[in-house]
């Protein structure tokens, strides 16, 4: 019996791979290496603007990942045969597609950021990322997908689907997390929030001000371990790092 991949599971693989590419960039380049923000080349002096853009970028990746997981579950529940090799090929194609799209659109067409904003040769890093994380996964995925597969689709497909799910959930969870060696929380309040109102909200959770942007709408605060900073949403905050929304990378900002 030949193990094939249903159209639904194949598209699930594309979407999950695409979201993994976005999470990979966000975790490695935004959080760990801190080489750029999503809109580093636009209004770079406005940290509030950069923080919001990164948060909404991660929110979009969660939507894509959620759609991919839903399609994978729906395909599986519908009885579609899932080849482990073909699903892995779809993941690689989606992962590479994210980096090709990011390079063509974000780096070269729109110019909203480069891989290394502080490099004297930004094109070198753009091309390196384009080849290593874009073209190579696409070529590998195409090669794997074009190979004939055989055998029972049962056990390998279960393993592949489980690994794809775990990788996506793991990457998404990591994107939510603030750094463990800090007790800082970054809070973004709605536009027009008075500085006094933001400071009052901070005091309600026992926070201590570490840094604020000139508008007073973006605060970095220090809180005691175990503080429920999510309560700030009830007092005008629209994004709170580490509070269960795609804002964990905010605590990695150098201020």
From TrEMBL:
Ranges that cross the membrane: 12-35, 55-73, 80-101, 127-145
InterPro entries in UniProt: DUF2243_membrane
Keyword vocabulary terms for this entry: Membrane, Transmembrane, Transmembrane helix
Keyword presence, Metal-binding: no
Pfam families noted in UniProt: DUF2243
Entry protein name: DUF2243 domain-containing protein
